[in-house]
Amino acid sequence: MRAIVHVDMDAFYASVEQRDDPKLRGKPVIVGGHPTRGVVLAASYEARPFGVKSAIPMSQAVRLAPHAIVVSPRPRAYADASEAVFKIFETVTPQIEPLSLDEAFLDVTASVTLFGAPSKIAADLRARIARDVGLNASAGIAEVKYVAKVASDFAKPNGQFEVPPGTAREFLAPLPVSRLWGVGPRTEEQLRVLGLKTIGDLATRDRRWLELKLGSSAQHFWELSQGIDDRPVISDREAKSIGAQDTFDEDVRGEEALLPHLHSQALRVGRRMRRAGVKARVVQLSVKYSDFTSITRRHTMAAATDDGQTLYREASALLSKVDLGRKIRLTGVSAHLFDHEGSQLGLFAAVGPSRSDKLNAALDKIASKFGGASIVPADLKDSAPDDEGDEYRRQMGARRGDVRRE
After folding, report:
1. What distance in Å separates the CA atoms of residue 162 and residue 146, rounded to the nearest whole number?
2. Domains with residue ranges and CATH for the chain
3. H/E element holding 168?
4. Which among 17, 46, 97, 103 is annotated as catalytic?
5. How far apart are CA 270 and CA 307, in angstroms?
6. pLDDT of 339-389, one tens digit each?
7. Radius of gyration in angstroms for the set of CA atoms belonging to the chain, rounded to a whole number
8. Is 143 in the active site?
9. How much is the pTM?
10. What's the rounded mean pLDDT across residues 208-224?
């Protein structure tokens, strides 16, 4: 029987701001970008009663709560706080699946013999995060990932909720069908037309009938309604790709404006790979234009690497193959096709660490001790977000460090 804990930090970005500036505590705080085209990255719980929430336009948020204090995002501060939280996670299990900077699944099935029941593990983690990082976290505990995620939503703010084994279907039954993963507004309306308003309504229907009405998605929705979710918790080491991307506050154009972003992204990807103990053979560049059309370019390298500078050189070369005359709103660098540490060396592979390996080890040690912002390339010292502060929160839906599975 599995034991899954879903931990989600409460109003993470806003809470970091309130933690670091006592004048903001107890007041409505909005963390956001450009006042006219930006979006809300986080809203404190004091701002939420006015209708302010993540991902709504900043212009709307300011109208809803004109008295709120607007704070510009500090990606480096959030990355450092995230790093501290995930280090606490790592003390109880290696099976950690990051969803974003402030959210993760933990498989604690094998941890109960050392640390006690899953509910105790969750409570201890939350207490240590509050004590050592100065932030509140909520947790959901269940047998499967989907139910644990829903349970953590019930626990907010600063609480935890456990769905005991064998009770998932009863727990889910009264919830609206919109709480099912994969149900957006259009699908929700389709389900309502069929008379399926709650998850319980769907759970009691015959699967063949659902397949006739919903097609290939019927099986997925039916299984979730029963509390069935066989997906494992996938740690960084098991990911198929690791990437970083940034959506710009304002559209940019031209190589000179884009290269610093690619540099930052490549370095973040390299650092994530070294933590996961993997090296990549394929580099991918992703570009999204102002009209929301997207393109990708890939290159397969002769040898696998976890060096951010190497990834940056490859990404820069790929950038020359895209149309830079158009305005761009997002770029991303990702690494694919991993070799894990300990894999067999090639016949003519170098013996011992290379100069770049030694340099990266030294830089990682400095960053671990003093924070990711302590040492950066000269072209990033003023503008680049730190290690994992990309694609702020779930604008989000991005995993921590934008780890992607394919």
Report:
1. 13
2. 13-75 (3.40.1170.60), 169-225 (1.10.150.20), 237-404 (3.30.1490.100)
3. helix 168-172
4. 103
5. 5
6. 765 444 444 444 445 555 555 555 555 455 545 544 445 444 444 443 333
7. 22
8. no
9. 0.69
10. 92
